[in-house]
Amino acid sequence: MSNIIVPLPANVVPDIGDPGWMSKGDNAWQMTAATLVGLQSVPGLIILYGGAVKKKWAINSAFMALYAFACVLVCWVGWGYRLSFGEKLVPFWGKLNVALDQEYLLQQGFAGKFPAATMVFFQFVFAAITLVLIAGALLGRMNFYAWMLFVPLWLTFSYTFVAFSIWSPEGFFAKMGLIDYSGGYVIHLSSGVAGFTAAYWVGPRLSKDRESFPPNNILLMLAGAGLLWMGWTGFNGGDPYAANIDASLAVLNTHVCTATSLLTWLIFDIIFFRKPSVIGAVQGMITGLVCITPAAGVVQGWAAIIMGVLSGSIPWFTMMVVHKKSAILQKVDDTMAVLHTHAIAGSLGGILSGIFAEPHLNNIFYGNYNQYIGLFYGFNTKQVRLGFRQLGVQLLGIIFVTLLNVIVTSLICVLLQYIVPLRMSEEDMAIGDEAAHGEEAYAIWGQGEKMDSSKYDVEAPIAAAKHRHAAGQVEMT
């Protein structure tokens, strides 16, 4: 049966679902990449946190991540996206506006051959994971109500500032030529510094929790870590905003650096602690992922391997040696060590980007051959001044992101103290999930009913045995 084509009336304009400026392939890849990044948070970091903490904190830790993901999305479409990528208000902030208008969402995004709706979703998952990473420093004691307020405030007054400054085409660091391919500064340095700063203001866990905080389920933690690693394909592979050769290079460099970093960390653990640590391997994996992020598509493979060796050794040294000997660092209870795995590793990646960024690859990504030249290639091409300039811009970016996050995060925490306690009470922290949410992570007896403590009372079995002996049922031994 043949199809019958009915022409539209002359006064009806057809809907254009495939505008000429859009690439279906790029749009499909961008949405796929965004979904991969989203899976890093939900469920990736949810189950990583849930498995990496004590049993009594499993629900609270996972829920902090889940809440942050949902809250950021609502704030993002309401005002966060336009503050980060909208029309310039000042050199570090966009104009306040919503990102839900159909006319706006269906037009071409500020970069790439896909609609603004795709860009809004892609940038959202990056903003969300930043807040989820901050949560890692605060596990095991932060008042959940304080966290509910912290998330929208920090997103609005910290994340949007840094994102616009570095990633928006109108941002002053973007115009200066800072290399942050996929978030070493905007996401990892920001979350590491903000998490450590917030941990200072919230205060530490209970002393017994700081002294002994074993994971309740290492296999679950590994499952979350696996989602984090594989999700990084979208994290770094999506930032060329196209399904092109640079995306392919970024993905390969990401996994090569990560594997090298994991193995390096593992070797250090074996040499100094005589045992290969699973938790240590996960830490090395994370530092490798973070370190390569600002450079993924602008360095060659050999540089990615060097970055992996350094990301598996320098954060290991700061965490295992410097932190343990520093009285100042010891005072701050950074539960998941985000200072080392994200702030230190992110800064390291930013510096190494300024050294190993290759001019030809920078030209593919940025479209400007003479502005982005790593120091190594500055010497090689006799453009030393440009190489030192690039390294200087990278260092200036680290200072900016660090200072901004220390100041803004501190102001937010001080403000919240007047609204709601930042820290749970000592009594509630001793209980954990049951006190915070009225729920427990695992029901390992019966059908999920509460454990009858009398069954585990030391005196009860003795009394029962005496009773049976008196009745002639058993003989006391």
UniProtKB/TrEMBL annotation:
Bilayer topology: Multi-pass membrane protein
Keywords of the record: Ammonia transport, Membrane, Transmembrane, Transmembrane helix, Transport
GO cellular component, one term: plasma membrane
Subcellular location: Cell membrane
InterPro entries noted in UniProt: Ammonium/urea_transptr, Ammonium_transpt, Ammonium_transpt_CS, NH4_transpt_AmtB-like_dom, RhesusRHD
Every Ammonium transporter AmtB-like domain range: 28-442
Residue stretches spanning the membrane: 28-50, 57-79, 120-139, 146-167, 187-206, 218-235, 247-271, 278-296, 302-323, 335-357, 395-420
Molecular-function GO term, any one: ammonium channel activity
PANTHER family: AMMONIUM TRANSPORTER 2 MEMBER 5, AMMONIUM TRANSPORTER MEP2
Family under the similarity heading: Belongs to the ammonia transporter channel (TC 1.A.11.2) family.
Protein's UniProt name: Ammonium transporter
Species annotation: Cucumis melo
